Amino acid sequence: MIYVVPFHTDHIHDIMSADDDFGTLFDQQQFLEFTRNTNKYWTAYTGYEDGNVVGVGGLVEIYPHLAEAWLVLKKNRGASLGTTRNILKIWKKLLYSRPKYERIQATVHQEFEEGIRFLDFLGFTNEGLMQKFGPDKSNFYRYAYIRHGPN
């Protein structure tokens, strides 16, 4: 069974401890500091399947009309296609239940094909490549969802 609860910083430990590759895209300590320091500016949730954390994610408010989306899924969780679809549906519902945000943006590593497909599924638009954006100077794409169309 899949269910969602409000995010707590401790939930990220469950993902990091089970995912040996977590540090390839994120510095674990930096990510923990991010979750501790920004939680007063965000809405975030943790997804569970059969009592195990499968992902954490949410929105960080930048301006009253703008939020940055973030999501970390447990790698190699062995989820079925049905489970993956349910996670996507839950995330989409949570993401679009915040009507105050006219723009929701996200970044994804240019080589992270699953992340690119995920943002496409959610209806985000690729706004272009940001060169040397990552902490290792790797390239990322900027994606955005504009709720009421471009101004």
Mean pLDDT: 76
Question: What's the helix count?
Answer: 4
CATH class: Alpha Beta
Approximately how much helix is present in the residues? Answer: 25-40%
CATH superfamily: Gcn5-related N-acetyltransferase (GNAT)
Shape: globular
The low-pLDDT segments are none
Major beta sheet, strand line-up:
1-2-3-4-5-7-6
CATH topology term: Aminopeptidase
Order of helices and strands: EHHEEEHEHEE
In total, the number of strands is 7
Computed over alpha carbons, the radius of gyration is 15 Å
Descriptive overview:
The chain has 151 residues and is of the alpha+beta class. It has one domain (2-146): Gcn5-related N-acetyltransferase (GNAT) (Aminopeptidase). It contains four helices and seven strands. Strands 1-2-3-4-5-7-6 form a seven-stranded mixed sheet, with helices on both faces. Strand 2 and strand 3 form a beta hairpin. It starts with a strand and ends in a 5-residue tail after the last strand. The relative contact order is 0.15. The model has no long low-confidence stretch (mean pLDDT 76).
Task: Set out the fold topology.
Layout: E1 2-6, H1 10-18, H2 28-38, E2 42-49, E3 52-63, E4 66-73, H3 81-95, E5 103-109, H4 113-121, E6 125-130, E7 140-146
List the keywords.
single chain, 151 residues, Aminopeptidase, seven-stranded mixed β-sheet, 4 helices, globular
Provide a compact summary of the structure.
The protein has a single domain (2-146), classed as 3-Layer(aba) Sandwich (Aminopeptidase). Helices cover 29% and strands 35% of the residues. It contains four helices and seven strands; from the N terminus they run βααβββαβαββ.
